[in-house]
Design goal:
The chain has 4 helices and 5 strands. By secondary structure, the protein is an alpha/beta fold. A hairpin with a 5-residue loop joins β2 and β3. The N terminus is likely disordered.
Length: 116
């Protein structure tokens, strides 16, 4: 299948759970996605505000299975540590982004002091 092919897969299952949360000072979009049947979910790009993200996860009744980073810019990763610690879920990130992740997503380039 080519990207942009517009394929829509219809499922006999109910719609999933999906929330968009703008977080942090630059309002980066964090997403929470989950299954209504299993109540398992993922958090995508937890930029900041771990407490707020965790409160939404709890309100949705989800068990987080993975923390996913689309890339390692600071505004997408700053709540990784608290979320991994609170949920026990592993972090998933493309290996080529590991050097930037290890440098706190480049936060220092913007004069920000970010936790590792």
């Amino acid at each position: 299948m080519r990207a942009g092919s517009g394929l829509i897969v219809k499922s006999p299952h109910r719609a999933g759970i999906f929330r968009q949360l703008p977080v942090g000072p630059i309002q980066t979009n964090c997403y929470i996605a989950g299954c209504e049947e299993t109540k398992e979910g993922v958090v995508i790009d937890p930029g900041e505000e771990a407490g707020r993200i965790l409160a939404e996860v709890k309100a949705l009744g989800l068990t987080i299975k993975y923390i996913l980073n689309t890339h390692a810019h600071f505004d997408h990763i700053l709540a990784n540590g608290p979320l991994v610690q609170a949920t026990g879920a592993p972090l998933a990130l493309h290996p080529l982004d590991l050097p930037l992740l290890r440098q706190n997503g480049g936060a220092g380039l913007f004069g920000l002091d970010a936790p590792p």
